[in-house]
Amino acid sequence: MQTLILTKNLHKVFDAGEVAVQALKGVDLNIPEGQFVVILGPSGSGKSTLLNILGGMDTPTEGEFLYRGTPLQNLNKHELTRFRRKAVGFIFQFYNLMPNLTTYENVALAAEISDNPLDPHKVLGEIGLTDREDHFPAQLSGGQQQRVAIARAIAKNPDILLCDEPTGALDYETGKQVLNYLQKINRQMGKTLIIITHNASIGSMADRVIYIRDGRVSRTVFNEHPVTADEVNW
After folding, report:
1. What CATH number does the domain containing 116 carry?
2. Are 145 and 95 in contact (CB under 8 A)?
3. Does any domain span residue 57?
4. Closest to 72 in 3D by CA, of 51, 54, 92
5. Is residue 13 in a domain?
6. How far is CA 160 from CA 32, 36, 41, in A?
7. What is the pLDDT of residues 11-49, one digit of tens each?
């Protein structure tokens, strides 16, 4: 499989006044296109910092970050914006929907900034929200809002879906539904899916699990037979 994301000796240091906080301490990754990857680690391990760099929302202090072989670590803000717009779809824990836009409008807005978007109506149909297109976020359940956020990310037709604790604000049953949707997108559409979480159970669904601790990759586990969300031992 073709390498989509490659990092070499990735470091990130934050200036916290008189103290420098080293969030990443030499992270090496090689993520092939089309894989389902879970980045697993406790709070403060550096996994969110890593996700921000992979999504072009931040830059490393040191090291290399390559996307399809092209170095991105030295891009300016405008160049990073173009990378995010073209290549990355984001799914956040707390949805981040526009409250004054309907379901359809939230998804269509994302599609409008893409060079090669998918049809918002079709995407919403695939994710089971055709009958909620005219509803505003406040009229939707948490699970429905998260599905709108997923549809919004997919409509851009990105190469990568980056998910930050996508089930963290959901109950057990709704979380399973959302994870099943995400796995379906990965398997059927071939999108590279990267989920960061502290929930170790989700790792059994992934092709590989990358464990982050104290700013470093502590180990990587490959799953020959990933399970569905319904089979996860929660």
Report:
1. 3.40.50.300
2. yes
3. yes
4. 54
5. no
6. 11, 10, 21
7. 999 987 778 889 999 999 999 999 999 999 998 999 999
Place of tokens 């490393």: 60
pLDDT at position 172 is 86
3-state SS assignment for residue 100 = coil
**CA-CA distance, 186 to 160, in Å (whole number)?**
10
* Close Cβ partners of 171 (under 8 Å, ≥ 6 residues apart): 142, 143
- Does the pTM of the predicted model rise above 0.90? yes
Beta strands 62-67 and 216-222, pairing class: unpaired
Joined together, the tokens standing for residue 71 give 């170095």
- CA nearest neighbour of 33 among 181, 164, 194, 183: 194
- pLDDT bracket for residue 115 (50, 70, 90): confident
Work out whether the CA dihedral 101, 104, 110, 115 comes out positive or negative: negative
Counting Cα atoms < 13 Å in the Cβ hemisphere of 188 gives 10
